[in-house]
Design a protein that fits this description.
heterodimer, A: about 140 residues, alpha/beta, five-stranded parallel beta sheet, B: about 375 residues, 2 domains, seven-stranded parallel beta sheet, 14 helices, chaperone (chain B), kinase activity (chain B), hydrolase (chain B)
Chain lengths: ~140, ~375
């Protein structure tokens, strides 16, 4: 067991899933975020385009990510995000996954998303450092 | 959910919960176990040890090939083919990490389109995280977890670039090597030692020009490999592996002897369209059947366990000795003493290892004495 003790203090990278959900085909923002997260030292799983909420849930659960970042530019966030949240809850993965949303979310929709459990919403023009800093500070420590 | 505590007894309880939940089929538990394995987190060795008795039934298929050969797409189609016949599938995809930030973008999942949303395909991306030796241990442990979970087939996907990746894929029961048509690079790669580990060769993108030539070249090389292995067999000795294996293990040459009875197959596929996937599945099945009927499967498993034991012992010893080096002022200080002419590397190494050697030798002497000096341990005798 000494080997275990030896590893105890080691930092592990923050694991993130960057997910494109629904029908919009704009993934430039998701790519930029994925690269920036990688450069910040995170392990980033990228889902690819046009994922259904169930597929996002599957990926988040199987990859055991600390952070789930959903990029939505289609305007369908009010129907898509709740489905993802339900799925995470079904697998017992909601409580310790930091859920963030990026994209174009009108101000009036934000309170509802926050009530659902979205920790932060990053609109267009958010400085990358702000997003990275937020993730560093809020990613669950569960080891 | 269990898994948040790290202190002694809690760790035990956490492992109890995780193992029970994993064996009960909870995906979350399987995912968490693999995370602990990947992080080499406290208690992970106990976890793997507990899962070990439940593993051993899955067919483990390794897929390797150079970047861009179409591994991820092929694995996707392969997983779908296994699912079509009712098998459950686990996938471990190993990706290199950035040497600069330590971070990585794990993109293999993008290609998993055919089985997306199907929870009976458990796909896990693993980053190489810059560590060399630990990666193959972590990967084989993750395979054990998927196996214990009850997956019928576990596919391991790696870039066939470095030694550690070759090591990983070699731990599979059946190894598929992907080759692109008409690419000189791939022929180079095969020369670099991957030819020896392939049971099935897949010429992917077979709709491209040059596929037929690549198939012919491969078959030619494989034929030469067979001749080489046959010669080694007759030689029946220690030099049969002089072709490049530096391992001194007897087990290694046993494996090479046995593998000579399996005629490696060359299969053509177009992974994007799914063409040839059935042929590939047939070839992989044929190899699995060969492993069972010939007894080679058992020999390979034994060899694999042997390598694992060696790797664990080596890793544990390295850690012990690194700690000892630190206690002696660190390797830099010792190196400086060598540089300044005060001592030499051999004396330093002897000094560091000597206590360990004495301790192990002492133990062996004790063991030898035990039968004759049984009275020295009255506790057992009086019962």
């Amino acid at each position: 067991m000494s080997a275990d003790a030896e590893q105890h203090g080691r930092n592990r990278p923050i694991r993130c899933l960057i997910a494109k959900v629904g029908l919009d085909g704009h993934d430039r923002g998701a790519h930029v975020i994925a690269r920036a997260f990688r450069d910040a030292g995170f392990e980033v799983v990228y889902s690819g385009l046009h994922r259904a909420p169930d597929e996002i849930v599957q990926a988040a659960v199987q990859e055991d990510v600390d952070v789930l970042g959903i990029s939505i530019l289609s305007g369908a966030h009010n129907s898509l995000v709740p489905k993802v949240v339900d799925g995470l809850k079904r697998h017992g993965a909601f409580a310790d996954t930091l859920l963030i949303v990026g994209g174009i979310i009108p101000e009036e929709d934000r309170p509802e998303l926050r009530d659902l459990g979205v920790a932060a919403i990053f609109g267009p023009g958010t400085p990358m450092e702000e997003t990275i800093e937020f993730v560093r500070e809020n990613a669950p420590r569960r080891e | 959910m269990a898994g948040d505590d790290t202190s002694g007894r809690d760790l035990d309880a956490r492992n109890d919960d995780l193992v029970a939940a994993l064996l009960a089929g909870e995906h979350r538990a399987l995912a968490r176990v693999i995370t602990l394995i990947e992080n080499r987190a406290p208690g992970h060795r106990d976890l793997v040890a507990r899962l070990h008795p439940h593993a051993g039934d899955a067919a483990v298929v390794g897929i390797t090939g150079s970047p861009g050969a179409g591994k991820s797409t092929l694995v996707d189609k392969l997983a779908a083919a296994y699912r079509d016949r009712g098998d459950t599938v686990g996938v471990v995809a190993v990706d290199p990490s950035s040497p600069y930030s330590g971070g990585s973008v794990l993109g293999d999942r993008i290609r998993m389109a055919s089985t997306n949303g199907d929870m009976d395909v458990f796909f896990r991306s693993m980053s190489a995280r810059g560590r060399l030796g630990g990666l193959s241990t972590a990967t084989t442990d993750a395979i054990t977890a998927l196996d214990a979970f009850g997956k019928d087939v576990v596919i391991v996907e790696t870039v066939g670039a470095g030694q550690s990746e070759v090591d990983i894929v070699r731990t599979a029961d059946t190894v598929g090597v992907l080759v692109q048509p008409d690419s000189g690079d791939d022929v180079q790669m095969l020369k670099a030692g991957i030819l020896e580990i392939g049971d099935v060769f897949v010429v992917n993108k077979a709709d491209l020009d040059g596929a037929a030539r690549t198939v012919a070249e491969l078959e030619e090389m494989l034929h030469r490999r067979d001749v080489g292995a046959g010669a080694g067999k007759h030689g029946h000795g220690s030099v049969s592996q002089s072709g490049g294996e530096s391992h001194a293990d007897g087990a290694r040459s046993d494996g090479a002897d046995a593998a000579a009875d399996w005629e490696p197959r060359v299969v053509e596929t177009v992974a994007t369209s799914g063409e040839g996937i059935e042929d590939l599945v047939d070839a992989l099945d044929a190899h699995a059947a060969y492993l069972r009927s010939s007894g080679v499967g058992e020999a390979k498993a034994q060899q694999r366990h042997g390598e694992k034991i060696r790797r664990l012992v080596r890793g544990d010893l390295t850690e012990l000795l690194e700690a000892e080096l630190d206690r002696r002022g660190g390797v830099d200080a010792l190196a400086e003493r060598v540089r300044s002419g005060e001592t030499d590397p051999y004396t330093v190494a002897d000094a560091v290892v000597e206590p360990l050697r004495e301790c192990l030798d002492g133990q062996r002497v004790d063991n030898k004495r035990t039968p004759t000096a049984a009275e020295s341990d009255p506790g057992d005798d009086r019962d």
